[in-house]
Design a protein that fits this description.
A five-stranded parallel sheet has the order 2-1-3-4-5. A two-stranded antiparallel ribbon has the order 6-7. The protein has helices spanning 2-20, 22-37, 52-57, 87-93, 99-104, 125-136, 163-166, 195-216, 235-250; strands at 42-46, 67-70, 114-118, 140-145, 169-172, 180-182, 191-193. Helix 2 (22-37) crosses helix 8. The chain has one domain (20-250): Glucose-6-phosphate isomerase like protein, domain 1 (Rossmann fold, 3-Layer(aba) Sandwich). The protein is α/β, with parallel strands linked by helices and 253 residues long. It is built from nine helices and seven strands, in the order ααβαβααβαβαβββαα. The chain is globular and about 55 Å long. The longest helix is centred in the C-terminal third of the chain and has 22 residues, at 195-216.
Length: 253
Amino acid sequence: MLAMQWLENTRAVLSRIEETQPASIRRAASLMADTIAAERWVHTFGCGHATLPIEEMYPRIGGFVGFHPMIELPLTFFTRITGEMGVRQFVFLERVEGYGTELMKGYDFDPRDTFWLFSHSGLNPVNIDVAMEAKRQGMKVIVTGSAAAYADQPPRHSSGQKLFDIADVIIDTCVPAVDASVPIANHIDRVGPISTMAFTAVVWLTITTVAELLVERGVHLYIHPSHNIPGDTTARERLEAALSEYKRRIAGV
């Protein structure tokens, strides 16, 4: 069954992450813990389906204050498919140099901040512009993507760099370059991409490590609780506390 083939491929990638990436995850988590302990921000960014890990980590149940999602709608909201804000415009925009630099002008950053980017290929200029600007402003840059699979691919950016070249820490998703993993009869293209599963696994492997490090330092976490559990009479209060803390910290960004 093709469904079982997809599941097997996904399990294989998750196993490779487990076997090869713990040290990188720990280094990234340590940088993020330093940032959050200083009441600064881990800024998170991706384009296209690489925005899904951004939305997964915060805000959501089990996430906590310290992660600042940066999602540029023209680079992600293409569910109309064609027409305004469609797929063709997205594919064009993510390859335009300078777009990411202009995007970064809309925010205030601090050298104590950390910047976490997600990109399967690491090739598209908008991500590279964002990462270069983050480094210029003194931030540590963490990149999650399929670094090994794209190691031999030529860059698309005039700097001659790929996103992985700019990173202080790389967490490799271990996903094949083609991403879609299941061949089907009488077709060139495959179905069943697995990069989203890998991204999500890296998100929670990393964030749970950040939480562990912060708690060891005595830092209080403002966690988003589940507010749908019967009998939990303080869930709304804890949610409001987290949102109030986020509002307090985000004022300068």
